[in-house]
Design brief:
CATH architecture: 3-Layer(aba) Sandwich
CATH topology: Trna Endonuclease, Chain: A, domain 1
Number of domains: 1
Shape: globular
Strand content: 25-35%
Order of helices and strands: HHEHEEEEHEEHEEH
Oligomer: single chain
Number of strands: 9
Distance between the termini: 39 Å
CATH class: Alpha Beta
Number of helices: 6
Helix content: 40-55%
Length: 162
Amino acid sequence: MFNEDLNYSLDRNIRHKINEFYFDKFPMLIDIQEVEELQLQKKGVDIILHFEDGKKVYIEEKLRREDYGDIFLEVISNSNKMSLGWVLTCGADYICYIVQPTAKVYLLPVAILKTALLNNYDNWIYLFGAKKCYNRSYFSVGLCIDIDELFKALQKELVNFM
């Protein structure tokens, strides 16, 4: 499943549109580096944005093939190993969550997203439940958070951080 998702995410047409998004949202951006090293990708870094001042921003990309009006946050990646999901292990600065059929893109700051998840986990489990995604010999578990609910929680955390 990982390799299938990786190949889908690297489709040239999709890649071009996503890169246009980055250049639009980050005016000082000069280069976009696609990370090919599997070890770095497993740490949640798919793209490195390079800026005029030498700064780098690390992005994990999540490409969703259907628009369900929510954002899936994986909290357990492998039920057999009980390993933490990508939302908790992400080492990137941002998650770029792309809903391909509707061309919606959400740029989520990882530190604030993790805090929002931890502060709202019990309530979100109550409201939205947990979803199992079955793979060959294991399943992953995540929460499908309504977009408005997620952005309210992110806004609350942003105010708390200021």
